[in-house]
Fold these 2 entries.
Entry 1:
Amino acid sequence: MIQQFSQQDLEHVYSNAVNTIQSQMNFADAVTDLENVARAGHGKAAMFLAELYYQGFRVERDSLKAQYWQNVATMKA
């Protein structure tokens, strides 16, 4: 389970997922990794997801998902 990882491990998964998305590789897996890390308490991952969904960058634009992830990020801050 990803919730058992340290903050450093979460940061590593987050960084890898962001790099994957930015280098136009496997978006679906990277978004899934970001969602898992965000649920485990990584606020930057939640904000990154919010931006992805607001902008429709490499995912379908979805204001409800964007707002959800922004709320998750706010709760983690």
Entry 2:
Amino acid sequence: MIRLIPSLPALYVAARVVWPSPWPLAVKLAATVLLIAASQYHLWSRLSSGSVFAPEFPRPVVILFNEAFGALALAAPMLLALDAVALVGWVVPGGGWAVPLAWRYAAVIAALVLAALAVAQAVRVPPLKDVTVAIPDLPPAFDGYTLLHLSDLHLSRLFPAPWAEAVVTRANALRTDLIVVTGDFIDGALASRRDDVAPLRALTAPDGVWAVPGNHEYFFDYEAWMRHLGGMGIRMLANAHTVLRREGGALVLAGVTDRSAPATGHPGPDLAAALAGAPAKAPVVLLDHQPGNAAKAAAQGVRLQLSGHTHGGMIRGLDRLVARGNAGFVSGAYRVGGMVLYVSNGTALWPGFALRLGRPSELTRITLRAGGALQ
């Protein structure tokens, strides 16, 4: 069954560009069918794998679908803006402006170019972003401590093993003290993604690789994924903590499960349980896939929270809508009470809407410093 809401931009583009054009009827019909087919990308994804979160087409096809779907998502508001200008022209005395068909063609071409650029930005191996976080009670031995923050890998047909290998190579070359992953490792069942996640086994850091689950892990076989990732040397902090020690100083690394977990019958995030038994005076770094509970974490004395989930909003402007669903947090560093929240734009993103404009992916190297302010 055709999904109505995603088809609306396609029908609008067809109505405002295809049918007013001086093309043969057969061409108009074919173009309209192609537009509607592109708008149903998530339906085709579900038919290919049983889930809209795991399209199982060859990678070039997934890229093409994202470019086409993205072009529709961009072209429709551009054409709507042109129609709004024309409408104003009709009501303004002496107006009666008409929008030339050539302008509509130009809008569609611009949308196609932007969509291709946005997908290219989304699928690249992310560049390094350096962030310094000051923690007032940081033990002197941890001054200058570095950790690499990965988030939202979304390993899939769009982000397969070769991409994962390139990320791991770049990550290991940074030689940080610690590597952390704030969830959404995969899109797909273990049987489908086993080879794609295999490169993560090579991730290495002196203080280990630690992680929490994201919401996408719960869309598939959560228990199987937790066992598999654990067997690869990635230590999961599901409402738990570990204590990092250096020269008599201690730093608590804690993690919580995702807010979506109870909907699938799994334990939800429990920061109190995660911190139970932790050294009372040691500063806490918290891994939480979603940033929405940052205020609660700050109230419990967490000094630094690392999150992802938002993908930075993907497109500048759209990020304001994404922020509304995440307590106002969408990209970068925020001061929340006595805590710093850092929300990564993500190492990758969901292959169902793989576009980035003005919100680049990132490998985030965080350096801890004693005292001072966020830089």
